[in-house]
Structure formats: C-alpha cells, structure tokens
Specification:
three-stranded antiparallel β-sheet; globular; 6 helices; seven-stranded antiparallel β-sheet; T-fold; single chain
C-alpha cells in the first residue's frame, strides 16, 4: 500500500503477525488502483463487475460517506488524482515535471445491485484511503485475539485493548484506549507540475488538489475506515463532530472536538 505497516502487541503473537501481513497483501491485491489485475482495476477498466465481498463492502462504505458528506468525500476522484500527476505508485511519481496539471470531473454515478457494481461512463474509483483504513481495521481484529494491540499503516492506526500514546504533529500526544486515528494532509504526498506544487487531496467541487490554509488534519473515530473519511471531510472544510488536531500551513496547531 505504498507505506510501512507497524504492528505492536502486548502478548504472545503466535501466527498473529503473519496473519496481519497476509491480510494486507490480500486486500491490496483486491483494492489497489495500481495493480492492473486487482478487482478495482478491472472494474475501472470494464465499467461493471460482479464484485467480491471486500470490494462491495468498501465501495458501499465510500458511497455512504459521499452521501452524508454532501460529496466532500468522493470515491470517484480517480481521474482527478491522475490528472494532477499521481498516476502510478507514489514512489514512482516524478517529483517535478513541465506539464501543468489539469482538473477532471468528479461525482460520477455508481450503482450497486446485488453483487454487481456499475459505473457511469467515464467514472473510475480510487478507494486508496478508505481501503487502507478498512485493512487496518481487519488487521487489528486479527491481532487482537493475541492481546492488546496497535496496527499502524502510515498514520492510519487502530487499537484494541491497552493504552497507547500516539504522537501527533510532534507536539501533541493522544492516549488511545480504543478506536482509531487517521490523518489527511498535503505535506507528505506532493510533487510539482509546471511550477505548481500539487498533492493528492482532491476537492471534488473543482476536480483539482484542494487549496486552503490547512496542512493536515488528524481525527479520532471508532474505526480507521471512518477516521479516514472524517479526516478528508475535515481537511476539505466540512463539519465533523470528533476529536481532531488541525495544523495550518503557517504552523499553527488547533485542538478541537473535546481535546485540550
């Protein structure tokens, strides 16, 4: 998933770590837009697919999030992300290029009937963030049978049991005893095209990387998949009622949602 996965366990792991590693590999193979043989890539290529349970579940989660966020969270940003320059696994994306980035339409139609997913012509899905959160949730459930644990995939993390101090922004530490944390920001995955600095967080209203005064937003939620959704909504200026840490481009940190 283009990131480092960290697993912490207070107990005897048995085969727990191996099961977590296998689950990350299994779900990446199904849900990655960078693997041409994944279920997601086949859906994007053909426009319709009799999908397996994992792709169905994550797509439904993404559609529910789009509905309740008024379109701020949108799984159909695939073409906009590609148009901005994020067209391959991030470690292969050139850090600079002469061509200016173009926007792309978002908000395409998605229909689910039974096990079949159908996409409106010209619509493709990017489930990267919510799929990563979903995988973290699955992984921590697998590891939790061995004891209190934490699974962290590049800042998307979930815990079960115990008490875990989690550093946020270098100056804030959150003590997490249940649930999950996710961060959406423009400070890590960024590049330049035609002299313009770009990032992967698309504003569906414009089809281009979001332009606002935020650098990143970290939220606490019941699950990593939900935290991923809420972090993106908050970054794009939507209202969320959860504990959160907001960092502005000029370095100011704000605690909200009951954090002090």
């Amino acid at each position: 998933m283009g990131t480092t996965v960290e697993c912490l366990l207070d107990g005897e792991p048995g085969e727990g770590f191996e099961h977590v590693e296998a689950e990350f590999g299994r779900l990446e193979a199904l849900l990655s837009r960078f693997r041409p043989d994944s279920e997601l890539s086949r859906l994007n290529a053909d426009g319709a697919l009799e999908a397996g349970p994992e792709l169905l579940r994550v797509t439904r989660l993404a559609l529910e999030a789009r509905e309740r966020s008024g379109g701020l969270f949108d799984p159909t940003v695939h073409d906009a992300v590609v148009a901005a320059g994020y067209d391959r696994s991030f470690e292969l994306v050139p850090s600079d290029g002469p061509s200016a980035a173009a926007g792309a339409r978002c908000g395409g139609g998605i229909r689910i009937e039974g096990d079949r997913i159908e996409l409106e012509p010209g619509t493709r899905l990017d489930l990267g963030g919510i799929a990563k959160g979903y995988t973290v949730d699955r992984a921590v459930e697998l590891l939790a049978v061995h004891g209190p644990c934490l699974v962290n995939a590049g800042g998307d993390l979930a815990v079960r049991g115990g008490s875990w101090p989690v550093g946020v922004d270098g100056s804030v530490t959150l003590e997490l005893t249940r649930g999950a944390i996710a961060t959406s920001g423009r400070d890590r995955r960024r590049w330049r095209r035609g002299g313009e600095e770009l990032h992967h967080l698309i504003d569906p209203a414009t089809g281009r990387p979001a332009e606002n005064g935020l650098l990143r937003v970290t939220v606490v939620a019941d699950s990593a998949a939900e935290a991923e959704v809420l972090a993106k909504i908050a970054f794009l200026g939507g209202e969320v009622d959860v504990p959160r840490v907001l960092v502005t481009a000029d370095g100011r940190t704000t605690l909200a949602g009951g954090l002090e």
